[in-house]
Write the structure tokens for this entry.
Amino acid sequence: MYKKEFDNLLNQNKKFDAYMFYGQSTFLIDYYTNLVATSIASKEDIQRIYYDDYNFKYIKDQLLQSSLFSSNNLIIVRIEKKLPKNEVTELINACNINPDSTIIFSCIGDSDFKTMGSYFTTKTNSVSVRMFAPFTNEAIKLLESQARKIDLQIDVSALNHLFFMHRQDLSLCFNDLSKLAILNKRVTTTLVNSHCFGIGNVSFEDFLNDLILGNDISDELQILLEEGMNEIYLLTQITSFVQQLFMISAYTRSFGTPNAKEILGFVPPKNIWEKKAKLAISIKPETFQEMFEFLLNLELEIKSTKINKQNLFLQASLRKFTVMFR
């Protein structure tokens, strides 16, 4: 299932014997793994097993045994490649047998976990949830929720500013929210600028604008990739940016002056919004379809074919993009 459906079940306090989180967003995989784990068991009752420490027999034995000191026995298994079907189904079955036990598979990386997800069924009271990179409005809502959780009073404009400052990296944003909470005062954009520092030598928002405007993005693109930005993540963020421009363009042509709150569900910093709105209006409607087709075909090609040097292939493709839509 997808995150939205799982969120509805969480709100209904639905519990499963086994969980599996996988997909594009490592942050959301970790976030929901910890959210579910802490809702079921206390910190001392949670056992975490990472990568090469995976041992099928040990985990199965642990799940079948009940703790003498607690009614909850929870194991988190963090993996980078899918596990054999018989092992996964036996571990789920162990949790079905022992009502005190729960297992969570936290699947990280680009491996194809979709097949493994099919092992989790209603019949065995287990669930697999696929996580996609959150859209900006979803990310801001997560930040608002975290701020409430840690009793941090912060302006929505400051959250937006922090999010774009960190190139939409939620992990860094969450870390800074914890730091800002120490101030024990309402946080504004000015305080964010004073106490938080953006990462990298390139403004991601400026890179996206340069890409769509047809400017030379060679140096910016190389720096972003050298700093460790994942090729697929970068591509999905570009597609999301183009989608936002299309929504602004369509709204403007239908209703007149664009309204950020109605279009995006949040209000970006003023300078970013004005630049984005101006850019959106300058693009012809038919050009958006061509952009989407190019980007989606590029993503499909990278994911479905064995390209030895994805980094260089993406750079060449995006340079072609700037020439095509200049």
